[in-house]
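Is adenosine-5'-triphosphate placement plausible here? Inputs below.
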Amino acid sequence: MTEHQTLTLQEIRIALAGKTLVEVDARIAPGEVLTVMGPSGSGKSTLLALVAGFLAPVFHASGRVLLNGFDLTGLPAEQRGIGLLFQDPLLFPHLSVAGNLRFGLPRATRDRTARVEQALAQIGLTGFGDRDPSTLSGGQQSRVALMRLLLSAPRAVLLDEPFSNLDTHRRREMRQLVFDRLREAGLPSLLVTHDREDAEAAGGRVIEL
Ligand SMILES: Nc1ncnc2c1ncn2[C@@H]1O[C@H](COP(=O)(O)OP(=O)(O)OP(=O)(O)O)[C@@H](O)[C@H]1O
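Reply from A.M.:
I modeled the complex. Tokens:
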């Protein structure tokens, strides 16, 4: 279990061609999901890119991103320990379902096979470990992507329209699973969505860009 963290977006300002696109100042508590909403082009994905550490150089950004007071602002993406979940589950097609989950585990993890079996059981996919990800339904793939993310022990999570590829029923199930898991793990998260029901299910504050 990861130490509980607070994610702070301190006086963030992102500008494009001299014009302010995004201004945010927020502190996200452990287990809290802060939802970011706003029209297309308002800078939601750009804000996530800044927090993750891969903001395109055309943008000018100021402010700081802190995890439990530790300044991430100058760190490259791979050193930030931030997990990402997108609309597309982005499973590795050349790895089995179990291989995708194993990939999430930090290198020093012991009992890897047992951890993967346990993870499969937690998402209702016992017996699916040897399958090729493309043979899974969209909802099953989403669950594998979520579990791969959680196994990687992130310190914070960014979600960009993570449910928008799922049908209504699967979306409800997946929302519940994702938000329960993030709360249980005590992870601060930032959710970008167009869907009010996502924001309600997330249960945290909502900011509009
Ligand atoms: N690499 C880039 N170079 C130049 N402009 C960009 C780049 N990426 C995004 N933009 C512009 O920045 C603005 C914000 O884009 P962004 O993708 O953050 O919006 P969004 O709120 O996530 O939109 P959507 O809801 O459609 O996903 C848009 O005007 C977009 O055209």
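Short version: Residues 22 and 116 are 40 Å apart (CA to CA).
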